[in-house]
Amino acid sequence: MSNPKNRRDFLVQATASAAAVSAIPYWTTSAHAKPAAAVDRFNIGCIGMGGMGMGDAHDHARFGDIVAVCDVDANHRERARVNEHIGKGKAESVEDYRRVLDRKDTEVVSIVTPDHWHTKIAIEALQAGKHVFCQKPLTLTLEENRLIRAACKANPKLVFFIGTQQRSDRGLFMRAVNMAQKGLLGDLKKITCGINGSPTGGPFAKSAPPSHLNWDMWLGQAPKVDYIPQRCHGDFRWWYEYSGGKFTDWGAHHIDIALWAAGLTDEGSGPIEVDGSDCNHPVEYKDGNPLVDDHFNTSHDFNIVHTFGNGLQIHVTSRGDNGVLIEGTKGRIFVNRERITGKPIEENWDKDKYTDAEAAALYKGKPYEGHKDNFYRCIREGGLPVSDVYSHLQTMNLCHLSAIAGRLKRTLKWNAKTETIEGDAMAAAMQKRTQRTGYEIPRVG
Questions:
Q1: Are 100 and 94 in contact (CB under 8 A)?
Q2: Domain spans of the chain, in order of start
Q3: Domain 8-166, what architecture?
Q4: For domain 168-350+389-429, is the CATH number 3.30.360.10?
Q5: Rounded distance, CA 8 to CA 22, Å?
Q6: Beta bridge partners of 272
Q7: What DSSP character marks residue 285?
Q8: Closest C-alpha among 250, 243, 244 to residue 193
Q9: Fold equal for 8-166 and 168-350+389-429
Q10: What is the DSSP-derived secondary structure letter of residue 249?
């Protein structure tokens, strides 16, 4: 299924690399929003200026001035610097993100780098006293989930916002969540998250990196390897070294909706068992690792089953329609970015039960508005945003567990209270990664 309601039309105009980002599940929710009043405007630093970074920066510019743009690709940051809606020819252009964090005038940072850089930059941004917008998926490993949580708890006055914009779709995903949370579907028994499979490809040729790209810094914490164009920019997500394939790409969106609907977003909640036996990869694996280094290696065909203590099952699958199917004892509904269907919808079971008050409740007491509008409102007023870091980390637990169970093709036991894989030393070792010297992630607390 093609990605509906995304920002491709904008990205084609705003960047020269639309093809690299066409697979990214994203769309804007700010069409109705107005620019912030001058008195409310912020100084914003944007880190990561690829296609998605350009799109996000364009949105951020409604709320403040982009004072710095950063990317390890000189072409990306120059494009952002001169863009009339972003850098306007005035923003500082830097290769090293630490120069953005060092600026005393920068109040907000937008992090839209490849996934394996998110946690390190985000924690260091908090340590520098910045409010943080970070694209999904927030983390690369289960260990990073705990590191981010500790850093956020240590900086409670700073707003940390995740780019899971389905949380701001009132007509589709928010309606589905409200209906489930109100009990209109009965007791939830099964939720299916259709997230499609990763593309396959390879062997890819190795070459010298282009002169405009700092390949060593792009790799960051990941192992040092020869440059392959398909490892970089838009295709990085199809390598477990830098991302989690569709488990973290679309999974960060649809699993989030499933857990939100089921009321399982609090710390300590989670499955008790994860069955990854029905998972296939496009290359040969041994002990959870690919045996070749020149092919995409994330799963293209899978059905991962998460079983919870109350009997609920969440299926994360590449098969069937992209979207979320929620099944309860009274009814079932299907929702994706194009439609919401099912008898409960056709018969308006939520009539008079999905008002502005219910929408505000889903927005944690804030009025319903555009996605980034909520971020900047929370900076001004305080409180958790609709896409808060803590609930997102529960989603990321399931995303990473899906990948680990699938890579090992077996069932794992998960202790949600301690956030550890139990009884499987090999799987437990995959909860974290060795970080390259010089690119270690800070430990807070």
A1: yes
A2: 8-166, 168-350+389-429
A3: 3-Layer(aba) Sandwich (3.40)
A4: yes
A5: 6
A6: none
A7: E
A8: 250
A9: no
A10: H
Mean per-residue pLDDT, 13-36: 40
Sole residue written with tokens 């990561």? 48
What is the distance of C-alpha 29 from the center of its chain? 16
Whether 153 and 145 have beta carbons less than 8 Å apart is answered as no
The one-letter amino acid code at 133 reads: F
- Alpha-carbon distance of 369 to 293, in angstroms, equals 45
Burial string for 284-316 (b: 16+ CB within 10 Å, else e) reads ebeebebeebbbbbbbbbbbbbbbbeeebbbbb
Q: How far apart are the first and last CA of the chain?
A: 44
Side chain identity at 386, as an amino acid letter? Answer: V
Predicted model pTM: 0.92
**How many CB atoms are closer than 10 A to CB 233?**
18
> 160 and 388 in contact (C-beta within 8 Å)?
yes
State pLDDT tens for residues 63-84.
999 999 999 999 999 999 999 9
Rounded distance, CA 362 to CA 336, Å?
18
- Residue 445 confidence class, pLDDT cut points 50, 70, 90: confident
